[in-house]
Design a protein that fits this description.
Blueprint lengths: L23 H9 L4 E6 L2 E4 L7 E3 H4 L9 E6 L2 E7 L11 E2 L2 H5 L4 H19 L10 E4 L4 E4 L5 E2 L4 E10 L2 E6 L11 E4 L6 H13 L9 E8 L4 E9 L14 E6 H9 L13 H9 L12
Parallel strand pairs: 1-5, 10-14
Antiparallel strand pairs: 1-2, 1-3, 2-6, 4-5, 7-8, 8-9, 10-11, 10-12, 11-15, 13-14
Length: about 300
């Protein structure tokens, strides 16, 4: 792979403190450290500092505010513990604290902070949606400083889920296929994508989704991995592929997407330059744009074939 900037959410400077998470005394001592800090969230959105980085509050100060649940240990940052604190959504934001939409925040944060943001938001959203045991229905409790939850009834342990998503640029000679969803901005087009299903490979999932959404048959054996990316909405792992089309006639399933079209490589280059008269592509934080850069901009080489 040639040298392209890392994608948002892909880098984190944290030591996730695996060796201390089962040590209750050690976890308690971490929270008492003077250097312990917290990133504040409210309604899924982070607080930003004046320099556009994630705002880091002293943990003791953060714990004085009403919270939705216990703080989550994200890891050690330069040896100091860093937590995510999810504030009670019913409270008024603290004075001089501004919460920013996560997507907007990712476009301005330092790259290392986007990795921290992805971890923190994914854990907060997972916890919000998994307060009860899927096995018996009893309430669950946070353990190991937020890395998992334990059922108060049957004792089952529950771990944060990560949902794999195949996102693929379908290509044929000097053309690529893009689609658009209902509700997107009028000019916006992007790569096709869909969640993987049990019992299929990444390449099989990509080919299946292409056919379901556009009616085009793609060859799973041609699929090549370009990049992957954590995507904290709510907690996906985007698996970016380029895959060859076998057929070219489009039959859109309106339950899946609104429209699909073939675009030339020259058109894609104009999209990336911002000079296309009709089409915009996703922002630089999105892996869909990286796929277009890899194919249209010819600035990255495909990785190994994914069987």
């Amino acid at each position: 792979m040639n040298h392209l900037p890392p994608l948002a959410f892909c880098l984190s400077p944290l030591d996730r403190a695996e060796d201390i998470r089962r040590d209750k005394a050690g976890l308690a001592a971490l929270m008492q450290q003077d250097a312990a800090a917290a990133i504040l969230f409210m309604k899924g959105n982070p607080a930003l500092a004046a320099d556009s980085g994630l705002l880091r509050w002293p943990l003791a100060k953060a714990l004085s505010l009403p919270q939705a649940d216990a703080p989550i240990l994200l890891g050690l940052e330069d040896g100091a513990p860093l937590y995510a604190v999810d504030l009670d959504p019913a409270m008024s934001p603290p004075a001089d604290v501004e919460f920013t939409d996560t997507r907007m925040a990712a476009m301005q944060l330092p790259m290392s902070d986007t990795g921290i943001l992805a971890q923190a938001r994914s854990l907060i959203e997972w916890r919000r949606k998994h307060r009860f045991c899927a096995n018996c229905g009893a309430p669950t409790q946070q353990i190991e400083a937020g890395r998992k939850r334990a059922c108060s009834g049957c004792g089952s342990e529950h771990f944060p889920r990560v949902d794999p998503v195949a996102i693929m640029l379908v290509v044929k000679d000097d053309w690529c296929l893009l689609g658009r969803q209902e509700g997107w901005p009028p000019r916006m087009w992007s790569a096709l994508a869909g969640f993987m299903e049990p019992g299929e490979t990444i390449a099989q999932a990509a080919a299946r989704e292409v056919y379901e959404e556009s009616g085009i048959t793609a060859d799973p054996a041609s699929a090549q991995m370009i990049a992957d990316q954590p995507w904290p909405f709510a907690s996906s792992l985007m698996l970016g592929l380029i895959i060859e089309a076998v057929t070219v006639d489009i039959t859109v399933d309106p339950h899946e997407i609104e429209d699909a079209r073939w675009f030339s490589r020259d058109e894609v280059r104009a999209m990336l330059d911002g000079t296309h008269p009709e089409v915009d592509v996703p922002p630089k934080i999105a892996i869909a744009r990286r796929l277009l850069e890899a194919w249209g901009g010819q600035e990255a080489e495909a990785g190994p074939t994914i069987k």
